[in-house]
Amino acid sequence: MGIGVVVGIVLTLAVFTVSGGGVLSHTVCAVSGDRLPPFEAWVPTVMANSPYGGKVWANATVPPGPFLDSPEAPNLYEIFPKNGSAAWAGFGGEFNVTPQENQSRLGPGSNAPCSAPFDIAPTFWGDLAGGIPLLGEGNMTDAPEPTTLGATIPPSTVELGISNGFSAANHDAISTCGSGATSKWTDSASFITSVPISSGAVVTDESYAFPFLETFHYWFPANFGTWQVDNLSAPGGPGGGWAFSYSPCT
What we know:
The chain is mostly beta strands. The protein has one domain (3-248). It has one helix and 13 strands. The strands form four sheets. Strands 1, 2, 5 and 6 form a four-stranded antiparallel beta sheet that branches. Strands 4-3-11-8 form a four-stranded antiparallel beta sheet, with no helix packed on it. Strand 9 (191-199) and strand 10 (202-210) form a beta hairpin. The longest helix is centred in the first third of the chain and has 16 residues, at 3-18. It is elongated and about 70 Å long.
């Protein structure tokens, strides 16, 4: 075999490997250490903000899988905040976390690198929560909404991070100034939480998207004002329904 042919074969194999063909070697996501001690935390299945002066009817459907692997686990959660309040419903979840890393393996195969340094596997643990306040009634904006649920499951002190407040308007505003009451609907296929993971003396926050289907029905009173809308399910957002910032009619 000529030198040129050999060089050509090597270059071809290298190109396949670099482009993801994995002829000479391929990357896999592999366990890199012992599973961390499990912990419990509240899992919100639905979080909802009501417009100031108005109402919201919100529910979440939990799909078959680890969150229904208990006779105690319901598949439907509902909340009904009103007049600028925000609330959540959910359950106690157990979180199993395993460190993982990219490893190179010789031989052909598809490249499947890790998407995160930890594999997070939550399941239904027990204890149900419904209609727990995030904000009380009378709030004109959801901007000051807390970024954790503010509740823990004894003896665990772990709280998931949430993003359900108003940051900036990214949707058409809703106004009833000079007009009648109106209703709006939206839905979301998932929402993202931040899971604090303790590994040794280091705590890192890792994202986890819960696959809960949420639906929201908002009601806005007649001739009452204008509501700026932060659509949390817009591309790049945390998922969920809408958050509001209100101003009166002038």
